[in-house]
Task: structure prediction
Amino acid sequence: MLKSRSNALIATVLIIFTVLATATRAKAADCDSMLEIRDCLALELDRAETDIAALMRKTEQAGETKLVRSMQSSQQAWLKFRDSQCGLEALADDNELATQSCLTRMTEERVVSLRAVTPLTTTKNAAHNAR
Result:
């Protein structure tokens, strides 16, 4: 009986996640008005920030303590730079979407940059991890 309740709970959770994922994809596809564009940019920013957190977590799990500390320090400095740069771009563009667009663009670029230095994604370690 406990197992059937557990299976039912798992099935319910999976259904909820599926519905939420579908709604998010549908919402991201509808980027026509200014409000929709802002919402889409916010979704993309959230995805990029989640990717950064996952890279940090995977690096920590890989036992790369020095790298994690360096990444954390670099990330703190980068966040200050990103926010300052996006504030500057927003003033220059005088556009309500400029800040959100800048935050999203720079964060997506940061994901690429961090992937280049994490042990699970570097070319050097890709062959090792494939074994």
Remarks:
- Residues 1-30 form one domain.
